[in-house]
Each structure stands twice: as C-alpha cells, then as structure tokens.
Specification:
By secondary structure, the protein is mainly beta. Helix content is about 5%, strand content about 55%. It has 1 helix and 12 strands; from the N terminus they run βββββββαβββββ.
Length: about 160
C-alpha cells in the first residue's frame, strides 16, 4: 500500500505557488513504474444547477521508474492551472477536492497495484511546506526516512 500525507499544502514554488502532497511506499516490496493522475473537482453553477466539474492537474513529474523512499508530487499553480487565482475561500465555496490515482507494479510479484486518495478543500493547508523527512545518513551511507514525519508540515 502507499501512504499519503494527511494534508496537501499550497507552498511557495519557483517564484509562485504549488499544490503539493507527499507519499511513501508502505509495502515491504518495491514499486516500479509508478504513475500518478491528479484531477481537481469543484461544484459550479450551470443553468441554475450545481454541477461537479473535473479538471486535470498536470504535475512537475507524473511518473517514477523506481519508487524508493518518498515522493512529493507537485502541481505548479500557474496561468494554465485550474487553481490559478483561487483562494482558500474559493475552494471552500466550491466544495473542491483533489483526486489522486496511483498505478504501479509490485516488483516482487509483477502485479499491478492501484491506489487512490483525495484531499478535500479543508485538508489543504495554505502557506505551509512539508518538513524534512530524511534521517541523517548512516555510517555506511544508507539514506532512510522517518515515515512518522510523512505529514509533518511547517508554516512559511
């Protein structure tokens, strides 16, 4: 299984902002060829009726050949983004949700693995970033993460 951070964040990114969430592999087996599809959903008024609309969210990187420790998925909120110009209040008003579908292959069993998750508008923290998850390297150079810090964030 894949573990998802408890919240997504809207953090400073390359002279702008980005929507980010973090995942890690909770399996003892390695995952390879992991791909992510992310969709933004919101309610809109259309012909006097509330309608739920879905918009693809492009990621900085949407595929990993080998999923090692953790992966922070990043969507740059630029002029092309469906989130461009929206505020925290806008997401609440539209009952917004970010939907995630991950697909990969369990290396040990050559089995396709699917998992999904989502972040509702109230699970997105604005003006925060993810805290460091990496432990200091061991004496023999092994790099590890502290999975307990998967959801750790800090205000910016």
């Amino acid at each position: 299984f894949v573990l998802f951070s408890e919240q997504a964040v809207v953090a400073p990114f390359r002279n702008g902002q980005a929507l980010m969430f973090r995942i890690t592999n909770g399996r003892h087996n390695q995952l390879i060829e992991l791909s992510a599809t992310v969709i933004y959903a919101q309610f809109e008024m259309e012909n006097g009726k509330q309608t739920r609309r879905f918009y693809p969210i492009p990621l900085q990187l949407n595929k990993l050949s080998f999923f090692t420790l953790s992966w922070t998925l990043v969507h740059s909120i630029d002029e092309e983004s469906p989130l461009h110009g929206l505020t925290e209040a806008d997401l609440r008003e539209r009952d917004a949700e970010v939907l995630i579908l991950l697909t990969g292959t369990d290396e040990t069993f050559s089995q396709t693995v699917h998992t999904r998750s989502s972040y509702k508008w109230d699970e997105i923290v604005w003006g925060a970033r993810f805290a460091n998850i990496y432990n200091p390297p061991t004496e023999d150079g092994l790099v590890t993460i502290d999975v307990r810090r998967l959801s750790a964030i800090e205000k910016v």
